[in-house]
Amino acid sequence: MGRGGAAGKRGRQDEEGVGLAALRDLLYLVALAWWTGTAAYFGGSATPSVFAHFARTEAGQIVEVLFPGYYRTALATGAVLVAMGAWRLAAGRPRARLALALAVVMLAMALVGALLQPRIHALRVQAAEAGPERPLPPAFGMLHGLSVVASGVSVLAALASWAIIATAGL
């Protein structure tokens, strides 16, 4: 007969060991903090500062250089969050399903942004090659908007994860 209820979860946690549980939770918190900090700095400070001090075309080019690192960070931290979330679920941790779901959202949104970025770049280059007076094509605005939404959803999922930790613990 299998274990059930709180006793069953407690038993799985005991089998896992305190050291491994602490490592798992530490990796989860570091990845969540790294992503939250990166997204907050990039979207709340770096990008607005660049656009405030450079012409729009130059600012777009500068920020575009930063995107690969931004998306590598998002994908790496998202992957760690999913792995640690799955480990938490397997260990029977409270709220593990919700934490894993939020981690999957963060990773999926990072992937969307990372996949859109090369196409956005190509449209920017195409418009620049057509001449300085040529406006960006409508597809640029649509794809850029989607990437902004994807980043925003990822940040909201991270903030929801922090809210859960703050109110209910890890």
How would you characterize the overall build of this protein?
With 170 residues, the protein is mainly α. It has one domain. It has five helices and no strands. Helix 2 (18-53) packs antiparallel against helix 5. The longest helix is centred in the first third of the chain and has 36 residues, at 18-53.
What keyword list fits this structure?
single chain; mainly alpha; elongated; 170 residues
Please summarize what this structure is.
By secondary structure, this protein is an all-alpha fold. The protein has helices at about 5-15, 20-55, 55-90, 95-130, 140-170. The two termini are about 30 Å apart.
The largest sheet, given as strand count, sense and whether it forms a barrel, is: none
Class by SSE composition: mainly alpha
Q: Topology as H/E string? A: HHHHH
Question: What is the number of helical segments per DSSP (H or I, 4+ residues)?
Answer: 5
Based on CA inertia axes, which overall geometry fits? elongated
User: What is the total tally of β strands?
Assistant: 0
User: Approximately how much helix is present in the residues?
Assistant: over 70%
Rg measurement, Å: 20 Å
What is the terminal-to-terminal distance? 29 Å
Q: How many domains, in number, for the residues?
A: 1
The portion of residues forming beta strands comes to under 5%
Average pLDDT for all residues: 86
Low-confidence stretches: none
